[in-house]
Amino acid sequence: MYLLMMVLHLSVVVALQALATVASFSAPHDMFVSTWRPMPIGFASRKASQHTRRRRTCTSVSFSQPSANDQEEKIELTPQTIAEMIEVSFIQSCLQLAQGYIDVLKLFIVAVKAGYELSLPLSELHQLVVECPVNSANRELMAEEKELRYEWMVVVYDMLNALNPDSKVDTSGEGDNISRVSSGRISQVIEAMLDIHTELQNEEATSGGKQDATVALANLTVQQAMERSPKLSKLNESTTDPTQKALLTNDIRVALMTFRVLEEEKICMQDTAGGMKSGSVPRPPIPGT
Prior knowledge:
The chain contains twelve helices and two strands, in the order αααββααααααααα. It is mainly alpha-helical. The chain has a two-stranded antiparallel ribbon with strand order 1-2. α4 runs antiparallel to α5 (103-117), α7 (143-163) packs parallel to α8 (180-206) and α8 runs antiparallel to α11. The longest helix has 28 residues, at 242-269. It is globular.
């Protein structure tokens, strides 16, 4: 019994010493200077909200969220707020895509779409993102990262313009921020997506409406899209550089996710009878708001 008590006492002493060592440890600042330190979504949201509260007077779109009293509260999204949403959701999208998750990528698309719905020219929205005071990466983004963010924005704008030819939003100047190779790749991806959409619409008509073309397109994977599209398959085979191949894959994914966002929004806007709801629909919270 005495031996057991001595062992327990020694264990407690060792544990306390270990805790004291951890508590007194202070890592040098230089250890973290060059490392990626993503800001948690919750903290980024709170930080972004400090800026957005001062910018509620610009032209805006309304998002509604349920309040504590189950009544809808209007939240005005200004161009600056939308830019903050894009900035925060892009960083989190990259981190989540590396782990196989797409939820925040859809939020990024929703944010870019909000700018599109305000008829913000792409160049203007991009400049707001560049000048955004929120820095969720806690460091200056590399030139390649900024170009990738802009490329995703171009994909969303070009896809929405292709689907809404009568109400296109200005995308002039996009070639100033991305390479000619990227611009050509995006154009081919958009064309291929529209071809797949047309093909699925024909299948929907053939099935007598049993197969919904938009739902089928929204549920496609990148690999399935390549298998359906000779253009994408050929483009993928001709792309030998691993970086360019990864960019192609992400462009296709962003285009597909844009269709999925549109489909999910359509479902939210429908009432139980299949018609469109007359009031605003509660939206999920978006990082940066």
